[in-house]
Please model this.
Amino acid sequence: MKKYLENALETEILGKNIIYYDEVSSTNIVAKDLMRKGVAQGTIIIANYQTEGKGRQGKNWVETKGEGIAFSIILYPNYNIEKISILTLITGIVVCQSLREITGYPLKIKWPNDIILNGKKICGILTEAINIEDGYGVVVGIGINVNNVQFAQETPYASSLYLECLRRFNRADIISVILKKLETSYKIYQTHKNFVNFIDIYEELCLNIGEAIYIKQNGAKVKAYVLGVTKDGNLSVQYDKGHVGEISSGEVSIRGIYGYS
Ligand code: BTN
Model:
């Protein structure tokens, strides 16, 4: 996988340094350790299998050995830490577009950054930031169900590209396409330092726009209608009683009113 990927890569920075594990705790954990040691921007950590894969909001990311993609990208952005959630949304756009290109299927984004096909979750993204000596570092962790046929019991809404598209995919080719697109988008982000350039494409790909959702926070469930995304990457919603508000990805999770997405 490593040699194949090195040959397939068409990037200047992302993936120039590849660290590959057949088995590791979590590529995000390794990435954070390496950032503390000052590893170069663009380094990627790939695992054929993770024993402690991490998901958003404290959940686990469970996978089958050798079937999915688990990798993390190390970045040192040049702007303040509050804007990191935007990087997660941009990665969602990039992964969604890459998987559409590779499969020919109309994958969508469930806000903030689950990638969905036929109402099932194919990919999750976990972005984490840590303080380092002269600023901070960000790890963007991407998990994709590629050729998987088995899923954890607690994720009945999960599926894979293989099950939905009925063919197997080369994992290194997928990583290569994602890194190329992410490098382009990351440069735009580094220059403009905001989400404005990405709003239109995000809204086009996001399946929640114009739909009713339940917002779940601290055990409570509130119904709302999704209006769009803001320049900060928040979801703009209208509540049943008519008032309009914004929700940010760190605080809440959402569900479609008819199911997972
Ligand atoms: C989610 O949807 O909850 C996010 C899942 C993120 C999983 C990826 S797999 C590679 C990287 N390493 C981890 O431990 N987690 C992320």
Q: What stands out?
A: The pocket of biotin is lined by residues 26-28, 50, 53-56, 59, 61, 70-72, 114, 124-126, 141-143 (CB under 6 Å). The chain is about 25% helix and 30% strand.
